[in-house]
Amino acid sequence: MSTESATATATAPAAKGRNTKGGKGPRYARTGYLFVAPFMIAFTAMFLVPLAYAAWFSLFREQMIGGNVFVGLDNYTRAFTDPLLMAGLGRVALFFLIQVPVMMALALFFALALDSALVRLSRTVRLAIFMPYAVPSVVAALMWGFLYGPDFGPIAQFADRIGATAPDFLGADLMLGSIANIVTWEFTGYNMILLYAALRAIPVELYEAASVDGAGPWRIAWSIKIPLLRPAIVLCMVFSVIGSFQLFNEPSIMRTLAPNVIIAEYTPNLYAYNLAFVGQEYNYAAAVSFVLGFVIMAGSYLFMLATNRRSRS
Amino acid sequence: MSTVIEQPQAPAGPAARVRPRKPRPKRSTVLTVGMLAAAAYFLLPLVWLVIASTKSSEDLFSTFGLWFGGENSLFTNVKETFTVDDGAFGTWLGNSLLYAVASAAGGTFLAALGGYGFAKYRFKGNQAMFMGVLGAMAVPSTALAIPTYLLFSQAGLTDTPWAIILPSMASHPFGLYFMRIYADSAVPDSLIESGRIDGAGDFRIFFQVTGRLLMPAVATIMLFMLVQTWNNYFLPLIMLNDPDLYPVTVGLAAWQGQASTSGGASGDYLPLVVTGSLVSILPLIIAFLFLQRYWTTGLVSGSVKQ
Amino acid sequence: MNPRFRRRTGLAAALASPLAFGACARQRVDPPEQVSRAEIDEAMRTPTELNFWTWVPGIEKQVALFEEAYPDITVDVTNAAQGAGHYAKIRTALRAGRGAPDVAQIEYEMIPAFTITDHLLDLRPYGAGELEDRFVDWVWAQVSGPGGEVWAIPQDTGPMGMLYRADIFEAHGIEVPETWEAFAEAARALHRADPEVYLANFPPSQGAYFAGSLWQAGADPFAGSEGPVLNVDVTSEPVRRVAEYWAGLVAEGVVSTDPDFSDQWYQAANRGKYATWLTAAWGPVFLQSTAASTSGKWRAAPLPQWESGGPAAGNWGGSTNGVFNITEHPIQAAVFAQFINTDPECTKAMATEQFLFPPTKALLEDPEFTGMELEFYGGQKVNEVFAQISETVSPEFQWPPFNDQVRADYGATVGAAIAEGGDAAAALGDWRDRITAYAEYQGFTVEEAS
């Protein structure tokens, strides 16, 4: 929660020429409530109530033998010492450390290149890179699963033709990388568009002078544009923290291709799903989800804190 | 975060889309080639998908994946995709459309109203409520799946379209965030004031005057929610049991499961999964091409990968 | 009372305690001692709609025959999900107390998972007790409870056998191995002679295959478990023998470890990478449609044996129809489950058109079934081979009350270890530890074999 408050406080002074709120005085406060009421009611019913219920649910333990008992924080104690959950968290943390920097570097590079006006056909290129965002992750995983296929996948076929052996993309060593590639494929364009849009919003005057002084486009990108992009990059990173730690769809589809590599506890989200739907440990699954949510919040908060501090110094 | 704030302003002002630029620097061939190579990487799987959907199940495995096989089975495949299982695929597409449009329309309306309210009115709890909504984004959707399922089933809503539409409408807080920022900068207070002086009620002002200024943001959020719901897999997987209610993502995954577990049918289902995948992404790609004008400037909203 | 208000109070009660959901699920119909003929006749004349969840292709045929016999009953067939998803969906629906089917397809290995939570209806009062003589003994043992309950009606089975490529065997001078020892020898010889070909593929995450192998080896790891007491003996000598046998062959590199039923595996089967498929009675027809390009080259035989004494086999797959006790129409549901699995026309169609391997004595002795000659197997009477194997399946094999969890744990421990050719004995220990920890968490009293 704090991550967003940090975001918002950062935004407040930045909004230029913001007027005082239109609805001053108690008379309009009621109208204000009426405006936000539909959203808040829907949000409460569809989000907060289930969330509160899940939180409360996680304090129980229902057994096949012995029924249901209140166990307080036992499920959380178990979660924090659960080696399977920790292994899963470690895996997605590694995934985050490998995949996100690559994806962000690519997205940033593409955005800068497209913004620099150095590239021909930039509209087509931009669309092409963004296109995978329109592909459901289920379909993306199905496609890549086939492309990775040993023997019959195009990559393996190609390697075979030139007398080489394609790496075992679905093997235990490469699986995380293979999934990272799918996610990178899906979301680089999306992040690129975010950064590109942010770049378009930078007033030209800010680097016009530099241009006049003879700074080339690379130098302008490095010294002027990237520092200005920092808030947008941070935002993308926070979304990536959430996305990486919640990884579910891709591994769950890839599981049919390599069931012995993608085990039930491969990612924390997959683990929670299997706890609930295979092991019937519904209460513990809820606790695991909250621990995961907590890790994500802590992760994003730390990330914001780190970047804020650095930008201040 | 200033860039994020400024984003919505771009389409707001009439001149914002055309940014005055200095004479362009010389184009770089190296960079162009590099970018084209990158574009090729991003298009490659889609090219594969198009090629694969022209193949019979035999050719899928026996011919080179990135080139066409002996004979073109595209039409057979498409016909099969839409006729097998009593035309289940068409039903799934229709369901996806219904869920996506209904939740995008409803969700955007709620977000527009709410974002406007948060931006333009001062009331007790304004800030706190807003922050609460944003903080909720960090909670994984799986945490909610089972409790939501249990609550919904108590209300008799599981295995109905509502089980998808209602949660999709309200569980993407980013729409609200985006709308608030947008309304904040795009709607001048003076406009509201002058409406009030003319004696119009605040809701009338919103629906007749100020709401119109939010249209670019509305289009962006709508497209974004459309994508979210169309691509959603986890929620319908849990909520729906009746295959007649599946959206296309769950349906395709079910076919994929059938292709592998029922083996005998493997030869029959695999081209359907491939062709079905292609058909299922066409509507969104067309929507993106069609609404390019909006999202290139407006789609700053961040979605959670799911 | 206003129905809306009622719903609200129901929700409030549910929120007050998660137990309430369990309570909903356990609102079961008390089965009367024995339902009379008259009661059954009356129920079958009452217009009723039954919900039936199944994955069996073509089952509509049997449903139609049932609806013809009982025109007042309509059966709504739903294929909700494949594999594990099927049970997950049933369980969540049962748990929520709403939307669960009346009748469902249930594999033998999953029956205890639904009896431990008290969700299956004992079918004895509805006439199922008298069906015992019609079914093969070991199959009937699988659907029977310790108190003689009948938890489900068998539909098909999968006694395990070996399909082999006669052409490859011949080319390399391999005799059909009768013992596992001979099988291992042949595996080494074949792979040495042709590195592209493996005598067998061990599917590392196929827990059902492994369980069937244990069955054949005479292991019965959960024998004697009843109610809250769970016996776990997955480290016994026969279990270790099976696990170490495969881990050894994998370590030698003479057995492949592709996941079965994957694109890769189908392709390999067509290409002739595997010289045998260790499978079950449903395998022959399945293979015929998936490896069509190898027609005429395959033959069927019993599995190799651990001991040269009496032949033994295990079972892999097959399923039953069970009735959930939340049903509002227990009589109709029970009659339906019995009808489609015992009516001569229904069962004959299953065996000869849908190729489900029958569990009934009548069909296993029916020359029209056993005498079928399959082109794909060079005209061999494959059904006869498997009908004979079916007689060698031991009735002593018990499933744990949480088989899906045991399977998942198997994949993560033993399956993974075998796939790497690793230390199978250590992995069995890990498997036991996981099962024990889970069972204790679920409130079972675990008794490990010394």
TrEMBL record, chain A:
Keyword flag Cell membrane? yes
Q: Which family does it belong to?
A: Belongs to the binding-protein-dependent transport system permease family.
**Sequence ranges assigned to domain ABC transmembrane type-1 in this UniProt record:** 89-303
Spell out the protein name for this chain. ABC transporter permease subunit
Q: Where in the cell is it found?
A: Cell membrane
Region: Disordered; residue ranges are 1-24
Which InterPro entries does this entry report, sorted A to Z?
MetI-like (IPR000515), MetI-like_sf (IPR035906), UgpAE/MalFG_permease (IPR050809)
Does the keyword Chloroplast belong to this entry? Answer: no
> What is the topology of this protein in the membrane according to its UniProt annotation?
Multi-pass membrane protein
TrEMBL record, chain B:
Keyword Transmembrane among record annotations? yes
Which residues are listed as membrane-spanning? 29-51, 97-118, 130-152, 164-183, 213-230, 269-291
Chain ranges of the ABC transmembrane type-1 domain:
93-291
The GO biological-process annotations, alphabetized, read as: transmembrane transport
The record lists the organism as Glycomyces albidus
Q: Where is this region: Disordered?
A: 1-25
Q: Which residues form the signal peptide?
A: none
Pfam families, sorted: BPD_transp_1 (PF00528)
Q: Which InterPro entries match?
A: MetI-like (IPR000515), MetI-like_sf (IPR035906)
- The identity of this protein, by name, is ABC transporter permease subunit
Task: Give the record's GO CC terms.
Answer: plasma membrane
Q: What is its main location?
A: membrane
From TrEMBL, chain C:
- Keywords of this protein's UniProt record, alphabetized? Signal
The residues forming the signal peptide are 1-22
UniProt keyword Transcription present = no
Which Pfam families is this protein grouped with? SBP_bac_1 (PF01547)
- InterPro entries listed in its UniProt record: Bact_solute-bd_prot1 (IPR050490), SBP (IPR006059)
> PROSITE patterns from the entry?
PROKAR_LIPOPROTEIN (PS51257)
Q: Name the source's superkingdom.
A: Bacteria
Keyword Signal set for record: yes
User: What name goes with this protein?
Assistant: Extracellular solute-binding protein
